[in-house]
Amino acid sequence: MNAVTNLTFDQIQVGDTVSLQHTVTRDEVELLALVSGEVNAFGPAWGDAEGASLAPEPRCEAVSAEALVHSLLKRRLPGPGTTILGHALRYSGQVATGDVLQAAITVQARQAPDTLVIACRVQRGEDCLLSGEVTVRTPAQALTVDERDASSVVLRRHDVFGRFFRACEALPPARCAVVHPCDADSLMGAIEAARHGLIEPVLVGPRAKIEAVARAVGIDLSPYRLVETEHSHAAADAAVALARSGEVQSLMKGSLHTDELMGAVVAANGLRTARRVSHVFVMDVPAYPRMLLVTDAAINIAPTVRDKRDIVQNAIDLAQVLGVACPKVAILAAVETVNPDMPATIDAAMLCKMADRGQITGGLVDGPLAFDNAVSLEAARTKHIVSPVAGQADILVVPNLEAGNMVAKQLQYLAGADSAGIVLGARVPIVLTSRADSVRTRLASAAVMQLLAHHQMAPKPSA
User: Fold this and answer.
1) What local confidence, expressed as pLDDT, does residue 162 receive?
2) What CATH fold (topology level) applies to the domain 2-147?
3) Distance between CA 450 and CA 176 in Å, rounded?
4) Is the terminal CB of the chain with fewer CB neighbours within 10 Å at N or C?
5) What is the CATH code of the structural domain delimited by 158-272?
6) Tell me: the pLDDT tens digits for 339-390?
7) Where in the chain is the domain with CATH 3.40.50.10950?
8) Which pLDDT does position 24 carry in this prediction?
């Protein structure tokens, strides 16, 4: 951090000048265009990562150059404490990524007791993008502040969930048993998914509780089927029975504990298949150029390598349903080399050999890979890792539930990721909702479930 000291009116003279040079970044152009409403500036760049690479560089109007003038006024002359009273500026042209801009301000007049008229100019080479005057009130007193680095801005260029919603538009709603929706969040989430055409809900639980919640939040339950049960355990059993009989194509967790629902699912008369049941977070991470799947962060506490084989296969199958033809799977560990003292690296090596022998199919599997090597091409190159997966993983397979939960939560709360959650490996897909989920997250989880449910019902090609 650098200390910045302002100038008061008495310290400034006509003719005082400051300037700066700045190279424009893509994020700056996109953010300024977005704020100003230049929606046509982006073209396909707001689509998927593949389309974005073919898009022209985004542009915004020269009015964006005013930000450099404000930076000079607020940081340099007069500096911190300056108040902008008005301006008369003229703009010409557009600003694009990579442009080198030269901004300068010069004191043109002093108006006692505290006002300055300052001439402003921003150029790109010989082209003048901005010119004119700004009137400011100088700081009332001398002030020195720490100048921190500018905050970084990350824009979401690939709307993963938007693609899901568009893919669901042509599909009929999936019949879904909503298990024990006895609080406002779970009931409203299910009804909102129904309003968007994602599910046809069957509400399973104590009628009196569900109806009381509906009255409290103003929901009309008359369009929806309600299967009455005595309590949450009975609701889980009844929902599983509906799925076994084919009356519903999916399940959605309400206000009961996850282990109550999953206990009914994996029971002898439940919805088990030959596969291990596992959970996948489907994540839209703003700083990552593709959809990212994280597994398992919610079901399997300490999976064996046999369990991980199913966890990997479940995630590959899901990625294919969501449009990734050959997903790249990174088996995570703390290091990228096999170490007999680190079980996660041994499991990773075994899983890779399973993929080589056809025990895991449909994706490219590599590991062990540390997190940075899995998601950063630069990190992988620095460590001389040669791999078709490193730096561009579609799926992150974590060593255990604790690691997975930390990875997913850090991406959500520190990287601004949106996440949808789905349980795989049972006869029907299962949505596990959380009270902390936003409406968009709940809808995205329902959309993933709808896509999976219809994929599972689709006739399979004969051998």
Assistant:
1) 85
2) Thiol Ester Dehydrase; Chain A (3.10.129)
3) 9
4) C
5) 3.40.50.10950
6) 999 999 999 999 999 999 999 999 999 999 999 999 999 999 999 999 999 9
7) 158-272
8) 87
Structural contact between residues 129 and 65, judged by C-beta atoms closer than 8 angstroms: yes
Instruction: Output the CATH code of domain 273-425.
Output: 3.40.718.10
Residue intervals in the chain for CATH 3.10.129.10: 2-147
